[in-house]
Amino acid sequence: MHDGIELDRHGVPAAVICTEEFVPSAKAQAAICGNPTYPFAVVPHPIGSLTLDELRKRAEQALPQVLGILTGAP
Fold first, then answer.
1. What value does the mean pLDDT of the chain take?
2. How many CB atoms lie within 10 A of CB 15?
3. Which residue ranges make up each domain of the chain?
4. Residue by residue, what is the 3-state secondary structure of the chain?
5. pTM of the model
6. Range 32-60 average pLDDT
7. Tell me, what's the pLDDT at 74?
8. Pairing with 36, which of 4, 27, 44, 51 sits 20 to 30 Å away (CA)?
């Protein structure tokens, strides 16, 4: 979260992706960084134990959220 917010502050487009498990932590970090409404994509947890194909599916799930964040679309 911190890195995404810092990149954004410097004019570098970024999209943070986190799993459902870490949504509360991501929101808290965004607030600490001074941007409590910073948007981020959310995917199901976990991702560490997924196969490459399963991980690819999670990335495909996140893509619309990521594109929305990067383009400012709702």
1. 96
2. 18
3. 2-71
4. CHHHHHHHHCCCCCCCEEEHHHHHHHHHHHHHCCCCCCCCEEECCCCCCCCHHHHHHHHHHHHHHHHHHHHCCC
5. 0.91
6. 96
7. 72
8. 44
